Amino acid sequence: MSSNKNALIRYKTLDKCLKNKYTKYTLEDLMNECSEALFEFEGKECFVSKRTIQLDLQNMRSEKLGYEAPIEVYERKYYRYSDQEYSIHQISVNENDLKAMNNAVQILKQFKDFSMFKDMNGVIQKLENSIHSTSQKSIIHLDKNEQLKGLEHIDILYESILNKKVLKICYKSFKAREQNLLLVHPQLLKEYNNRWFLICWHNNAIYNFALDRMEEIEIEDGVEYIDKDFDADRYFGEVIGATVSETQRPQNVLFIVDSKHAPYVKTKPFHHSQELVREDETGTTFKICVQLNFELERMILGMGEFLTVLAPRKLKQRIAKSIRKAHENYHVLPEENIR
Length: 339
Known about the structure:
There is one protein chain. By secondary structure, the chain is an alpha+beta fold. It has helices at 3-18, 27-42, 50-61, 95-108, 121-130, 154-162, 232-235, 262-267, 294-302, 313-331; strands at residues 71-74, 78-81, 167-171, 180-192, 195-202, 205-210, 214-219, 251-257, 275-280, 283-290, 307-311. The strands form 3 sheets. A 5-stranded antiparallel β-sheet has the order 6-5-4-3-7. The protein has a 4-stranded antiparallel β-sheet with strand order 9-10-8-11. Strand 5 and strand 6 (205-210) form a beta hairpin. Helix 1 (3-18) crosses helix 2 and helix 1 packs across helix 3 (50-61). The longest helix is centred in the last third of the chain and has 19 residues, at 313-331.
């Protein structure tokens, strides 16, 4: 059992004892009550020390956990709440707290129709009722598209990661003529630019598979799950998007943005490694250190004529080729297709 869960069980037990009007509890009594409560949950002896209970009482008294419990010692050895109506489960909230909770509810309501959050509907309703939330219009709007192909798979993928289950996926990439059966160990669900990907262990390597290319998914109970203790921040730390190469090293990418559009790139960096190299009347030069992948090229091309790649040469040539091709497409466009 995790230490956090142990602490929650102890706080709950202490709360029950401290609000009991008919029993006197010494520090030793509280130690025994918490030890017995942990034994019920774990099924094995679990002795709670005097020092642990003293720290728990101190934490409950403080603002650290938001309890500020009115714990007092009376007759020099017994512990109780000075306010007999107090409980850590009935903490009062002020007007600012209610406003903050109401704002959080408005954000959560935007996910009510999203498949993986469907079980939240009742919780959100309870929150609204509990904080007397008004039916105000949302003032924060999150970009989402419930009609994306593949979202129907999120539930089983999420549960498989949570419960460490191996999956058999019928997958057909955009380039493949036929579908493939893949045996994967799911590690993470990744969203980028309104598309979802499954990051998984497959054939002794980490892969990402787009959810919109998955046709069928089955749980494979007969295969032992491999947990790679996946660190998403580290894995995606040197890329833009979801495509990571195990062999490619990150490179310094230099690009210049014209003066009019440079503030957008300053305030919304392409990557956390972004640095401002120089700035003059012609524009602002930036540097990022990333792998060269498809998502990086799409982002650069999305800036159109406002951004010019300076280095590396390989990336500069790719972008120039894409722009030439786009230019050619407009020159060969049949006149009748315009009408």
